[in-house]
Prior knowledge:
Elements: E1 14-21, E2 27-36, E3 42-44, E4 59-63, E5 68-73, E6 77-84, H1 89-101, E7 105-110, E8 113-119, H2 124-132, E9 139-143
Antiparallel strand pairs: 1-2, 2-3, 3-4, 4-5, 6-8, 6-9, 7-8
Amino acid sequence: MPVSRDGTDGDGFTGIRLTVESQQGATADEVVAVTPMNDGHYLVRLSPGFFRGIAAGDVIAYDEGAKNAEVVARGGNVAVQVFHSGIPDEAVASLKRRAVGIGGRVDGELETLVVLTFPIEVGFPAIEAVLAELPEEGVEWEYGNVFDEQGEPLSWWEGIA
């Protein structure tokens, strides 16, 4: 994996457990790749696939007991989770190529999930144009760190992009 602008290359990862709650109320832990920092904070190395509110490059404070994280400093990246089922493999491969082609990267992949990270400078219109090329059926995508739990924009990108 090449080194990105924010230093989130593939070396020196450790994992922390963050609790994710489904819309139905079920909970599970997601292991998120981080690097410990000297001040007790962690640098998020790869955008998570399920935990909301953080992206690669963010610095977080980790509450081990609650298995929760709070952003201390934004890294300037947008996380996107693309959930898919029953779409052609070529559609997934094309998504990944187009994302990388505009400056994004693939931070994770499961059988029915692709996690993408984009520098905010790419811009929301370019990100959404890549996602608009996906089939309409069998795909749902969402931003991982753009909206709060009530659906309101977090607006951390204002003044950056």
